[in-house]
Protein backbone atom coordinates (compact mmCIF):
# COMPACT_ATOMS: atom_id res chain seq x y z
CA UNK A 1 0.00 0.00 0.00
CA UNK A 2 2.90 2.38 0.71
CA UNK A 3 5.27 1.03 -1.94
CA UNK A 4 7.81 -0.42 0.50
CA UNK A 5 9.17 -3.90 0.96
CA UNK A 6 8.30 -5.82 4.14
CA UNK A 7 11.90 -5.41 5.33
CA UNK A 8 11.95 -1.65 4.75
CA UNK A 9 8.51 -1.08 6.22
CA UNK A 10 9.12 -2.92 9.50
CA UNK A 11 12.41 -1.06 9.90
CA UNK A 12 11.09 2.42 9.06
CA UNK A 13 7.69 2.15 10.76
CA UNK A 14 8.63 0.14 13.84
CA UNK A 15 12.42 0.30 14.06
CA UNK A 16 12.62 -3.51 13.91
CA UNK A 17 15.26 -5.17 11.70
CA UNK A 18 14.05 -8.50 10.30
CA UNK A 19 17.23 -9.60 8.53
CA UNK A 20 18.14 -12.32 11.04
CA UNK A 21 14.65 -13.08 12.39
CA UNK A 22 12.21 -12.74 9.50
CA UNK A 23 9.43 -14.50 11.41
CA UNK A 24 9.58 -12.62 14.70
CA UNK A 25 5.93 -11.75 14.12
CA UNK A 26 4.89 -15.27 15.21
CA UNK A 27 5.64 -14.58 18.89
CA UNK A 28 6.79 -10.97 19.28
CA UNK A 29 8.96 -10.28 22.31
CA UNK A 30 7.69 -7.74 24.89
CA UNK A 31 9.59 -4.87 23.23
CA UNK A 32 8.15 -5.64 19.81
CA UNK A 33 4.64 -6.00 21.26
CA UNK A 34 4.85 -2.59 22.91
CA UNK A 35 6.01 -0.90 19.69
CA UNK A 36 3.37 -2.61 17.55
CA UNK A 37 0.55 -1.66 19.93
CA UNK A 38 1.73 1.93 20.31
CA UNK A 39 2.64 2.75 16.70
CA UNK A 40 0.13 0.44 15.02
CA UNK A 41 -2.84 1.70 17.02
CA UNK A 42 -3.73 -1.88 18.00
CA UNK A 43 -5.27 -3.29 21.13
CA UNK A 44 -3.46 -6.26 22.73
CA UNK A 45 -6.36 -8.48 21.62
CA UNK A 46 -6.07 -7.33 18.00
CA UNK A 47 -2.32 -7.94 18.00
CA UNK A 48 -2.73 -11.41 19.53
CA UNK A 49 -5.13 -12.31 16.70
CA UNK A 50 -2.35 -11.60 14.19
CA UNK A 51 0.29 -13.76 15.91
CA UNK A 52 0.72 -17.23 17.39
CA UNK A 53 1.27 -15.87 20.87
CA UNK A 54 0.08 -18.43 23.43
CA UNK A 55 -0.22 -21.23 20.87
CA UNK A 56 1.52 -24.55 21.52
CA UNK A 57 4.68 -25.39 19.64
CA UNK A 58 6.10 -28.89 19.57
CA UNK A 59 9.04 -30.43 17.74
CA UNK A 60 9.34 -27.78 15.01
CA UNK A 61 5.68 -28.16 14.02
CA UNK A 62 5.66 -24.72 12.35
CA UNK A 63 8.49 -25.67 10.02
CA UNK A 64 7.65 -25.45 6.31
CA UNK A 65 5.91 -28.67 5.16
CA UNK A 66 6.53 -30.10 8.63
CA UNK A 67 4.35 -33.17 8.11
CA UNK A 68 5.28 -33.73 4.48
CA UNK A 69 7.11 -36.86 3.35
CA UNK A 70 10.35 -34.97 2.60
CA UNK A 71 10.60 -33.57 6.13
CA UNK A 72 9.98 -37.00 7.65
CA UNK A 73 12.58 -38.61 5.37
CA UNK A 74 15.17 -35.86 5.94
CA UNK A 75 14.34 -34.21 9.31
CA UNK A 76 17.71 -32.49 9.58
CA UNK A 77 17.85 -31.03 6.08
CA UNK A 78 18.65 -27.34 5.93
CA UNK A 79 15.72 -25.16 4.88
CA UNK A 80 16.10 -22.56 2.14
CA UNK A 81 15.82 -18.85 2.84
CA UNK A 82 12.10 -18.75 2.00
CA UNK A 83 9.18 -20.93 2.95
CA UNK A 84 6.32 -22.04 0.73
CA UNK A 85 3.47 -19.55 0.62
CA UNK A 86 0.14 -21.37 0.26
CA UNK A 87 -2.73 -19.10 -0.68
CA UNK A 88 -6.43 -19.25 -1.43
CA UNK A 89 -6.97 -17.33 -4.65
CA UNK A 90 -10.66 -16.75 -3.86
CA UNK A 91 -9.77 -15.20 -0.49
CA UNK A 92 -7.25 -12.87 -2.13
CA UNK A 93 -9.80 -11.94 -4.81
CA UNK A 94 -12.35 -10.99 -2.14
CA UNK A 95 -9.91 -8.85 -0.11
CA UNK A 96 -10.03 -5.08 -0.49
CA UNK A 97 -6.32 -5.26 0.35
CA UNK A 98 -4.95 -8.80 -0.14
CA UNK A 99 -3.18 -10.23 2.91
CA UNK A 100 -1.75 -13.54 4.07
CA UNK A 101 -3.84 -15.33 6.68
CA UNK A 102 -1.98 -16.26 9.85
CA UNK A 103 -3.09 -19.89 9.58
CA UNK A 104 -1.62 -20.24 6.07
CA UNK A 105 1.83 -19.58 7.52
CA UNK A 106 1.81 -22.28 10.21
CA UNK A 107 3.58 -24.82 8.00
CA UNK A 108 1.19 -27.76 7.76
CA UNK A 109 -2.07 -26.03 6.81
CA UNK A 110 -3.47 -27.27 3.49
CA UNK A 111 -7.10 -26.12 3.22
CA UNK A 112 -9.13 -22.91 3.09
CA UNK A 113 -12.13 -23.79 5.29
CA UNK A 114 -14.05 -20.73 4.07
CA UNK A 115 -14.07 -21.90 0.44
CA UNK A 116 -13.48 -25.59 1.24
CA UNK A 117 -10.62 -25.87 -1.24
CA UNK A 118 -6.99 -27.00 -1.16
CA UNK A 119 -4.60 -24.06 -0.84
CA UNK A 120 -2.56 -23.22 -3.95
CA UNK A 121 1.20 -23.75 -3.58
CA UNK A 122 2.38 -23.29 -7.18
CA UNK A 123 1.94 -20.50 -9.69
CA UNK A 124 -0.60 -21.28 -12.46
CA UNK A 125 1.66 -19.48 -14.94
CA UNK A 126 5.27 -20.56 -14.39
CA UNK A 127 4.27 -23.58 -12.22
CA UNK A 128 7.01 -22.82 -9.70
CA UNK A 129 6.47 -23.01 -5.93
CA UNK A 130 5.13 -19.84 -4.35
CA UNK A 131 7.67 -18.66 -1.78
CA UNK A 132 7.66 -16.08 0.98
CA UNK A 133 10.87 -14.68 2.48
CA UNK A 134 8.92 -13.38 5.45
CA UNK A 135 9.66 -9.94 6.83
CA UNK A 136 13.14 -9.87 5.26
CA UNK A 137 11.53 -9.60 1.80
CA UNK A 138 13.23 -6.66 0.08
CA UNK A 139 10.89 -6.35 -2.90
CA UNK A 140 7.47 -4.73 -2.83
CA UNK A 141 4.93 -7.49 -2.29
CA UNK A 142 1.90 -7.89 -4.53
CA UNK A 143 0.18 -10.90 -3.03
CA UNK A 144 -2.37 -11.47 -5.77
CA UNK A 145 0.36 -12.03 -8.38
CA UNK A 146 3.25 -14.46 -8.75
CA UNK A 147 6.48 -12.56 -7.90
CA UNK A 148 8.29 -14.28 -10.83
CA UNK A 149 5.92 -14.22 -13.81
CA UNK A 150 3.18 -11.89 -12.45
CA UNK A 151 0.42 -14.41 -13.23
CA UNK A 152 -2.76 -13.69 -11.26
CA UNK A 153 -3.22 -16.05 -8.30
CA UNK A 154 -6.84 -14.98 -7.89
CA UNK A 155 -7.86 -16.89 -11.03
CA UNK A 156 -6.61 -20.30 -9.86
CA UNK A 157 -9.16 -23.11 -10.01
CA UNK A 158 -8.51 -24.78 -6.67
CA UNK A 159 -9.13 -28.45 -5.92
CA UNK A 160 -12.13 -29.10 -3.61
CA UNK A 161 -11.16 -30.50 -0.20
CA UNK A 162 -13.02 -33.43 1.35
CA UNK A 163 -15.13 -32.75 4.44
CA UNK A 164 -13.19 -35.17 6.65
CA UNK A 165 -9.90 -33.39 5.94
CA UNK A 166 -11.46 -29.96 6.61
CA UNK A 167 -12.79 -31.15 9.98
CA UNK A 168 -9.44 -32.66 10.92
CA UNK A 169 -7.50 -29.48 10.07
CA UNK A 170 -9.96 -27.46 12.19
CA UNK A 171 -9.51 -29.88 15.10
CA UNK A 172 -5.71 -29.77 14.74
CA UNK A 173 -5.73 -25.96 14.83
CA UNK A 174 -7.82 -26.04 18.02
CA UNK A 175 -5.41 -28.58 19.51
CA UNK A 176 -2.37 -26.45 18.65
CA UNK A 177 -4.04 -23.31 19.98
CA UNK A 178 -5.03 -24.78 23.35
CA UNK A 179 -2.31 -27.41 23.87
CA UNK A 180 -4.82 -30.19 24.61
CA UNK A 181 -8.13 -30.88 22.96
CA UNK A 182 -10.47 -33.53 21.54
CA UNK A 183 -9.50 -35.41 18.40
CA UNK A 184 -12.02 -37.76 16.83
CA UNK A 185 -11.26 -41.34 17.76
CA UNK A 186 -8.52 -40.43 20.25
CA UNK A 187 -10.41 -38.31 22.75
CA UNK A 188 -8.39 -35.77 24.73
CA UNK A 189 -4.76 -35.57 23.68
CA UNK A 190 -1.88 -33.12 23.94
CA UNK A 191 -0.47 -31.40 20.86
CA UNK A 192 3.03 -32.73 21.51
CA UNK A 193 1.80 -36.33 21.67
CA UNK A 194 -0.30 -35.83 18.52
CA UNK A 195 2.73 -34.63 16.55
CA UNK A 196 4.57 -37.80 17.58
CA UNK A 197 1.66 -39.94 16.35
CA UNK A 198 1.69 -38.09 13.02
CA UNK A 199 5.42 -38.74 12.64
CA UNK A 200 4.93 -42.38 13.56
CA UNK A 201 2.32 -42.83 10.81
CA UNK A 202 4.39 -40.93 8.26
CA UNK A 203 7.55 -42.92 9.01
CA UNK A 204 5.60 -46.15 8.56
CA UNK A 205 4.32 -44.94 5.17
CA UNK A 206 7.30 -43.09 3.69
CA UNK A 207 10.35 -44.76 5.21
CA UNK A 208 9.42 -48.26 6.29
CA UNK A 209 6.99 -49.33 3.53
CA UNK A 210 7.51 -50.80 0.09
CA UNK A 211 6.04 -48.95 -2.88
CA UNK A 212 3.42 -51.58 -3.75
CA UNK A 213 2.19 -51.70 -0.13
CA UNK A 214 1.96 -47.90 -0.05
CA UNK A 215 -0.04 -47.89 -3.29
CA UNK A 216 -2.41 -50.51 -1.87
CA UNK A 217 -2.97 -48.27 1.17
CA UNK A 218 -3.82 -45.23 -0.96
CA UNK A 219 -6.24 -47.29 -3.05
CA UNK A 220 -7.93 -48.54 0.12
CA UNK A 221 -8.28 -45.00 1.48
CA UNK A 222 -9.87 -43.74 -1.74
CA UNK A 223 -12.33 -46.64 -1.77
CA UNK A 224 -13.33 -46.19 1.88
CA UNK A 225 -13.83 -42.44 1.39
CA UNK A 226 -15.88 -43.06 -1.79
CA UNK A 227 -13.48 -40.95 -3.85
CA UNK A 228 -12.72 -41.38 -7.54
CA UNK A 229 -9.78 -43.80 -8.04
CA UNK A 230 -8.24 -41.19 -10.36
CA UNK A 231 -7.62 -39.03 -7.29
CA UNK A 232 -4.69 -41.31 -6.57
CA UNK A 233 -2.87 -39.08 -9.07
CA UNK A 234 -4.45 -35.70 -8.19
CA UNK A 235 -3.93 -35.89 -4.42
CA UNK A 236 -0.34 -35.10 -3.51
CA UNK A 237 0.10 -37.70 -0.78
CA UNK A 238 3.58 -36.48 0.04
CA UNK A 239 2.42 -33.03 1.10
CA UNK A 240 0.08 -31.43 3.63
CA UNK A 241 -3.29 -32.19 2.03
CA UNK A 242 -2.40 -35.82 1.39
CA UNK A 243 -1.37 -36.21 5.04
CA UNK A 244 -4.71 -34.76 6.19
CA UNK A 245 -6.61 -37.19 3.94
CA UNK A 246 -4.67 -40.18 5.29
CA UNK A 247 -5.14 -39.13 8.92
CA UNK A 248 -8.83 -38.26 8.46
CA UNK A 249 -9.45 -41.74 7.07
CA UNK A 250 -7.44 -43.35 9.85
CA UNK A 251 -9.10 -41.43 12.69
CA UNK A 252 -12.59 -42.37 11.44
CA UNK A 253 -11.80 -45.93 12.55
CA UNK A 254 -9.13 -45.36 15.18
CA UNK A 255 -7.16 -47.35 16.28
CA UNK A 256 -8.28 -50.29 14.11
CA UNK A 257 -7.37 -48.51 10.87
CA UNK A 258 -3.93 -47.73 12.20
CA UNK A 259 -3.47 -51.43 13.00
CA UNK A 260 -4.77 -52.27 9.51
CA UNK A 261 -2.30 -49.78 7.97
CA UNK A 262 0.67 -51.16 9.89
CA UNK A 263 -0.23 -54.68 8.81
CA UNK A 264 -0.72 -53.71 5.17
CA UNK A 265 2.65 -51.92 5.13
CA UNK A 266 4.29 -54.66 7.21
CA UNK A 267 5.72 -51.88 9.35
CA UNK A 268 8.13 -52.48 12.24
CA UNK A 269 6.85 -52.61 15.81
CA UNK A 270 5.40 -49.37 17.17
CA UNK A 271 8.06 -49.29 19.89
CA UNK A 272 10.82 -49.49 17.28
CA UNK A 273 9.41 -46.62 15.20
CA UNK A 274 8.85 -44.38 18.23
CA UNK A 275 12.38 -45.12 19.45
CA UNK A 276 13.74 -43.58 16.22
CA UNK A 277 11.89 -40.29 16.69
CA UNK A 278 14.02 -37.42 17.96
CA UNK A 279 13.16 -35.14 20.90
CA UNK A 280 10.49 -37.38 22.46
CA UNK A 281 10.65 -37.80 26.23
CA UNK A 282 9.58 -40.99 28.01
CA UNK A 283 6.36 -39.46 29.38
CA UNK A 284 5.23 -38.41 25.88
CA UNK A 285 6.14 -41.83 24.47
CA UNK A 286 3.91 -43.45 27.07
CA UNK A 287 1.01 -41.11 26.28
CA UNK A 288 1.44 -41.97 22.61
CA UNK A 289 1.40 -45.71 23.28
CA UNK A 290 -1.75 -45.27 25.38
CA UNK A 291 -3.48 -43.39 22.56
CA UNK A 292 -2.65 -46.13 20.02
CA UNK A 293 -4.76 -48.76 21.75
CA UNK A 294 -4.65 -52.19 20.11
CA UNK A 295 -2.41 -50.85 17.31
CA UNK A 296 0.43 -51.12 19.80
CA UNK A 297 0.13 -54.92 19.49
CA UNK A 298 1.22 -54.86 15.84
CA UNK A 299 4.09 -57.15 14.96
CA UNK A 300 5.62 -57.36 11.45
CA UNK A 301 5.50 -60.60 9.51
CA UNK A 302 8.91 -62.09 8.63
CA UNK A 303 10.09 -61.38 5.10
CA UNK A 304 10.29 -64.37 2.74
CA UNK A 305 14.11 -64.34 2.88
CA UNK A 306 13.95 -64.42 6.70
CA UNK A 307 11.75 -67.52 6.59
CA UNK A 308 14.14 -69.04 4.02
CA UNK A 309 17.11 -68.52 6.33
CA UNK A 310 15.21 -69.75 9.39
CA UNK A 311 14.38 -73.02 7.64
CA UNK A 312 18.02 -73.55 6.65
CA UNK A 313 19.23 -72.78 10.19
CA UNK A 314 16.89 -75.46 11.50
CA UNK A 315 18.34 -77.94 8.99
CA UNK A 316 21.96 -77.22 10.07
CA UNK A 317 22.98 -75.84 6.65
CA UNK A 318 26.62 -74.83 6.03
CA UNK A 319 26.07 -71.15 5.16
CA UNK A 320 29.70 -70.37 4.30
CA UNK A 321 29.75 -73.16 1.72
CA UNK A 322 26.51 -71.87 0.19
CA UNK A 323 27.84 -68.30 0.15
CA UNK A 324 30.95 -69.32 -1.77
CA UNK A 325 28.81 -70.96 -4.45
CA UNK A 326 26.05 -68.32 -4.73
CA UNK A 327 26.53 -65.68 -7.47
CA UNK A 328 23.70 -63.41 -6.22
CA UNK A 329 25.40 -60.81 -3.99
CA UNK A 330 22.24 -60.10 -1.94
CA UNK A 331 21.76 -63.76 -1.01
CA UNK A 332 25.51 -64.16 -0.51
CA UNK A 333 25.65 -61.29 1.97
CA UNK A 334 22.69 -62.66 3.90
CA UNK A 335 24.21 -66.11 3.99
CA UNK A 336 27.48 -64.73 5.35
CA UNK A 337 25.61 -62.64 7.93
CA UNK A 338 23.79 -65.74 9.11
CA UNK A 339 26.95 -67.67 10.01
What does this structure look like?
The chain is mainly α. Among the domains are: 1-54, no CATH class; 187-297, no CATH class; 304-337, no CATH class. Helices cover 45% and strands 5% of the residues. It has 16 helices and six strands. The protein has helices at residues 6-14, 30-40, 44-48, 69-73, 89-94, 163-178, 191-206, 211-224, 231-234, 240-251, 256-265, 270-276, 282-292, 304-314, 319-325, 329-337, and strands spanning 83-84, 111-112, 117-118, 131-132, 180-183, 187-190. The strands form three sheets. The chain has a two-stranded antiparallel sheet with strand order 1-4. A hairpin with a 4-residue loop joins β2 and β3 (117-118). α6 (163-178) packs across α10. The protein is elongated and about 80 Å long. The model has no long low-confidence stretch (mean pLDDT 89).
Rounded radius of gyration (Å): 24 Å
Mean pLDDT: 89
What's the end-to-end separation, in Å? 74 Å
How large is the count of helical segments? 16
> What is the β-strand count?
6
The coarse overall form would be elongated
The oligomerization state is single chain
State the low-pLDDT regions, or none.
none
Order of strands, widest sheet = 1-4
Helix percentage: 40-55%
| Beta-strand content estimate | under 5%
Kindly name the structural category. Answer: mainly alpha
- Spell out the helices and strands N to C: HHHHEHEEEHEEHHHHHHHHHH
Largest sheet: 2 strands, antiparallel
